[in-house]
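Methods — Computational structure assignment.
A single polypeptide chain was analysed. Its primary sequence is given first, followed by the predicted tertiary structure written as structure tokens.
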Amino acid sequence: MQIRNYWRNLASADWVMLVTFLTLVAFGLAAIYSVELSSEASEFLNVKKQLVALGVGLAAFLLIASSNHKLLRNYSAVIYVAGMLLMVGVLILGIKVRGTTGWFDFGIVRFQPVEFMKVAVAVALASYFSQRARRELRWREFFESGAIVMVPAGLTYLQPDFGSAMLMVGMWLVVIFFAGIRKRFILILVLAFTVLALLGWNFVLVDYQKARLTTFLHPEIDPLGQGYNITQATIAVGSGGWFGSGLGFGSQSQLKFLPESQTDFIFAVVAEELGFFGVSLLLVAFALLFFRMYLLASKTKDDFTSFLVIAIGGLLFVQFLVNVGMNLGMMPVTGVTLPLVSYGGSSLLFTLIMLGIVESAAIRARISTT
């Protein structure tokens, strides 16, 4: 019976989404391998670590996809509290990497709790809106759902990890948009953002964060300092041409002009070495992934499933938008990586876990209609 159910689930899987995200992972591995070629006496350690994370992530993906994602609703509070405890714990016991206290170090591996917290927030928002949201949001739903996000986002900012905090807020904005936000709420959000931006600039942001925003608008004022990253990324993207210079032959990445080339600026590596053709394939893959999620969220009859897929899709979409915007010089550098493509074990693992949840929803949606 279990074997029969397994094959039934396999036949009902969304193969378009499966092939799409595997394509994106392949792009990432190729780009990481290319960057590693420039390292002296490289043992391709980062490639090996990413492959290990991929193996664990795919195992988690298959396990979750074959399970019933609706059970998450019963444990949404437990998952959320566990995430909050991890977020508080990492501020106390975590290690600092590149100025951010956001990792637990277990010797062999490092774990970034904010990646788990993103999943927890997505489940909490889905559970909340499936039980309380009306056709149009009222003030109560607006502020209560905002509190669900703002508390962990605040803890994330204290690390400080402004990029991940921004992604959580972005996910919330996508969810409340689909939940039926009123026009006056949008106006209030714009006004609140303006006020918070002014207050943040004067009382919250530290000097290096202000410098990032200033050089985003005017990178030429500090081309060898804060404006260096944006300048080198745009040079790499612009030099790719139609078919690029080939894997391992990008001057910006191979000669180490491009900083954080395996993480924040991996899109620029793809653009320089695979050109317009490679970037087009990458963007089409992302577009297909987001489109399949949108179709699933719009067609399912279960409110929890719909909001959960919207939350996960919204998070990944905002992350994609911010990262590509950074690489094109259209957004300030915030340390946000490209989902499924950039190097990072915790990020890849929990992205695959989220996609496993979406695949579980797709499988059950198809089974229920057959």
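Note: The chain has one domain: 2-368.
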